[in-house]
Amino acid sequence: xxxxxxxxxxxxxxxxxxxxxxxxxxxxxxxxxxxxxxxxxxxxxxxxxxxxxxxxxxxxxxxxxxxxxxxxxxxxxxxxxxxxxxxxxxxxxxxxxxxxxxxxxxxxxxxxxxxxxxxxxxxxxxxxxxxxxxxxxxxxxxxxxxxxxxxxxxxxxxxxxxxxxxxxxxxxxxxxxxxxxxxxxxxxxxxxxxxxxxxxxxxxxxxxxxxxxxxxxxxxxxxxxxxxxxxxxxxxxxxxxxxxxxxxxxxxxxxxxxxxxxxxxxxxxxxxxxxxxxxxxxxxxxxxxxxxxxxxxxxxxxxxxxxxxxxxxxxxxxxxxxxxxxxxxxxxxxxxxxxxxxxxxxxxxxxxxxxxxxxxxxxxxxxxxxxxxxxxxxxxxxxxxxxxxxxxxxxxxxxxxxxxxxxxxxxxxxxxxxxxxxxxxxxxxxxxxxxxxxxxxxxxxxxxxxxxxx
Length: 454
Hints:
The protein has helices spanning 2-17, 83-104, 141-148, 178-181, 242-246, 253-258, 275-290, 305-313; strands at residues 41-44, 47-51, 67-71, 74-77, 113-114, 117-118, 170-176, 188-189, 194-195, 200-209, 212-221, 229-235, 300-301, 375-381, 411-415, 431-435, 443-444, 448-450.
């Protein structure tokens, strides 16, 4: 036995030593990495389908021509982002604003220490120490005064009760303007290792002036990749007045006051979130994941128009609705989604406005509420002629509107229909639009993440 073991070890050593010298062998990186399933997401396998409306327009619009396209595999949230999940983002931003304020007030214990020394970054850019909790009930006068700046002033509240001002929940995020990098005049010269002398990037930037967010578009000379970066500061708290503004002469006040804050609505889809706020959520979710895992994942993002439609069809290439049939009722006569069955008959489907996520059966991919409940933001820009512009592999008509662009360039595709829509808008191929800086009580979102591998 020992003799056989010695021969085996000698054979392994000889094989390892016989690696060809001076030949291209690669670094030996293992390609057997298997990506773990992201929590709360389902896998949508790659495939092809006929993208576009399956039915005549109910509003007299000219339908786009259906296009046969292919879509890579991706992960997708099994339900819309709920109030409870969005609150995790809101509370993180709230605590980060509080910790930053304490660092600016000279409380160094709330900034990250590296190698037993406080980092040399300025208080505005120093890394925060998330292992410390925000001392909301501290008796320290300096801390109390600092945190009090996050609350409404006494004359802005009823009954004198202290309330945190959600208008101060601001999140700053960045993105690279690949549309500017792809301009012919901005082509990077690989021979000289530089951009051309007349290369100019048109980007957005944000700053705070007298407590007000200022979003402006600037032009800067393109010298390095850093010049392609846009920044945006976003108030991330949902709009809670939308119920009154969008549905006047109706008594929606209770839902307006309680929808996001009351625990009874925790598992309802978050609404009143703009496309820009949804983008901020995706960026935060990416950083939150990468900071907690040794291996970074693909970015969380909004789905493209094609990805959303492909996922909604659930593998049924010509499905009219996500459940695969051509009708909105099952064989017992029960409605299959939360929508507006008839004029004023909102409750015939067992719901009035929004409902808890996941109450109806999922489609064949395991995705819930791909029709009805709330419409959903996508990353795609809206135009009636996009089918003539898009590619047939991972198609998406993208236009990253700048702050200075006119409103019609800020239209984003929304899909799926909502609790206030008729059945036509529940169809997989039907799309509508909303402006990226507008919020509605019938629009929410869910995230996707590209898949690493075949």
